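W.,

You were right to be curious about this one. When I first looked at the sequence I had no strong expectations either way, so I just let the prediction run and decided to look at it fresh. Below is the sequence, 193 residues in total, followed by the output.
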Amino acid sequence: MNYPTGTKRKNLTDKNHSNINYRNRGMTLEAEINLSNEYYQEIDKAYIYKKPTPIKITKVDYPSRDKAVIKEAFFTVPSTTDYNGIYKGKYIDFEAKETRSSTSFNLNNIHPHQIKHLSNVYNHGGIAFVIVRFTILNETYLLKTEDLLSYIANSKRKSIPLAYFKEKAYILSDNYRPRIDYLQVVDLLIGGN
């Protein structure tokens, strides 16, 4: 069917139609965690924040006094993990990752310095974990740092199979508010209270 102006409607069976990118149609894991953290703060339940990535600005343009535009910057040091804060008197630190794989989580997605940081937090009595979303399956898991470290120490694989998450991790359900209630699992980790 043609439009009244004579413009032809694009044929949906064209080769180009298969190049549509459906990524990020919904919220990303980090956006959902950020909403959850805002909710926790609103109800005075916990104070957990997204850590800013440390950068050094080297070039700025000033088109007008109040409109500075960063033109060049670089990362000064490797970032540790995505989130940290406090809940029920306990320090919390965690990393959030997404994978498009439906069978495993590639360990290259977590940098060695992040694993070391999570290990240090855990060894000093903090609550440390990784939240991993298998986007294709729409399943989100919380894996404790000690289980992550155990897997790395005892396996030669470069990825963690989904079966390990199903066995060792806690599945996180999607809710309205908070979007991802990961503090329910943290309550189990610290013994309720």
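Here's what jumped out at me. The chain has a mean pLDDT of 84. And, maybe more interesting for your project: The first strand starts at residue 47 and ends at 50.

Coffee later to discuss?

I.
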